[in-house]
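Most newcomers find our protein records easier to grasp once they have seen one. To make this concrete, we reproduce a full record directly below:

…
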Amino acid sequence: MTVLQLLSVTLALCTLRASAWCAADTTLWRIGTPDDASQEFSDFHQADPEVVEIPAGTAQLPGTGISKGLRASSNPSMDIRFTLPAIPAHGVQFSFKLLKAEKSGAQMAVLANDLMAGLVQLWGTTGSKSPYAWKRTYRLYVPKELLKQGANVLRLRSIRPLWSDASVDAHCWWEWDYLQLDALGEEAREPIHGSVAYLGTTMKNSSRDFKVDDDTLHIAPIAFTWMGIAYSGNTIRADFWYDVGNQQPRRLEYLTLCRDLNLSVDVDYIGGGHFKLDADGHLPQRHQEDLKHFFATYGSLFQYYELCNEPCMFGGDYAATLELARLVNSLKPAHVKTTACGWAYGGGKGTPKNWDANPDNRRAIEDLCQATDGHSYGYSYADDRGGSFIENLATCRGVVDGWPKEYVNTETGTNNWHSEANGTHFASTQPKAQAFDRILRAHIAVVDRTMQHAAIFDDFGLFDAPDWKDLSTLTAFAAADGPMGDTRLKTYRRLALAYATHGTPLSYTFADRTQVADRLIYVRAVDTSGIPALPGSGAVSNRLLINLVNFENAPHHVAVAVTMPKAGTYAGMRIGAGMTWAAAHSDVSLAASPTVAIDEQLAAGEAVQYVLSPPAAAKP
């Protein structure tokens, strides 16, 4: 491992507050005992809010008499009242371990003294036939600006999906093992929002080809920036299939473009369906040499290698895939993670037929991989058979606290058919937008890296591009619920800006706290220069990203002052609502003192992002 790779790993661990190299955090209080059980708590109360008092100086409070979780239909909120003799210099981290929840995908808002600190996405296996429960510790960064010396209130709230009504409340519940608040021992390296989540996509010219050409290089940087994923280490799937190379004359430039946008890459090339093993049980020599050349040419510019795409949907040999995994491990650069197949868990093909529907077969391949995978569309991620979350729990025989290794999902999304009406059967004023929102939120709760498939892909896509050479024709794909509904791009941007922009947090204060008190208005401002360099490519960024996100189904005004790293003029762009790129973005230049004032009127469910470059260095 190189010094750069070691530093990246160390910083990542520190981000999660899990490394002995980090300054120690101080536990301010804990409710309940970390014992993987909720039995010390009481059943769900009938209260809104339920009030929990933590006496001054108390670090451990038993769960006796306190609800074991929240349920929207009975005790939808909890106020935890506590005292701070002084405001922690680096803010605090709220954490809890999820033990049980319904598979419909609940979400918990956390407000510190009436100001939104975050909206934690949750998921569980209750309602499925899985013998395994999804368990994970979720963490939330709470900046010091939301805290007060003396009396404080941390309010936890069960929140309905954006366009749903009370019909979902009985299904919005969860149980916890404990609740905990820690004072951070050093400056946060990431405004962790439940978990560290990365979003991405695949860039295709259409659903009928795999072109990587001049047009791809023209459209991709605009699309990735408009989506809100550029500059933050988010992940792009590069479909470099072995048999489509003649369509892809610009592979190297495309990977370089991703590097320059500080985007990580998951590539696929030779898969288990591209060859038959020789009599000696090895890949044909030609394929071995091709794979060596591929890694030598491109290996420094990607971070993940996907073994195969849906092997029993499109055809793939079990023994060949095992041997391919061994070969990839022997040839790849150390920084590249061998990633399991994009499992479809059956499909009628493969040798032997449907071999990837058997968790034992998947496990044999997973044992050779450093990251797992699994595809999902609509509501399939939670299906008992063929559902990526349920099936992957079976593969690893359950979890103790999240997945045992990184989960890289290379395909997910919805098309215009997926709807709450034919999926969850919950009422929604925007049933098709809600379906897309639900699947992305579930992946944010469960998956480390999630790729929407694909940015341009008929009615699965986020964009339309009638003329790839004319950016004015690049538009958001029309809303499936009609002209007044949310586009998939709007939904994607709301979640990307809230969960998938990374870097060192920038402090902020509200101009008028009463405007946003008890409102689901989330501010995420980061300095991307705080992100460790990407393994292999060494990609870094210097952008400052300021995101304002409205999680409510009504418009709201918000004004904030964000403290920039230094005084000066920050130039860049503002990206907000709009069906075309021209309408959605505008150039801006903000003078920082070092604070900058941002004042926005956010439509329901809308998000606005400022992408800024630091002040130019003075000439010597």
The CA atoms of residues 73 and 116 lie 22 Å apart. The longest strand covers residues 173-183. Residues 1-21 have pLDDT under 50 and may be disordered. Residues 24-193 form a domain with the Jelly Rolls fold (CATH 2.60.120.260).
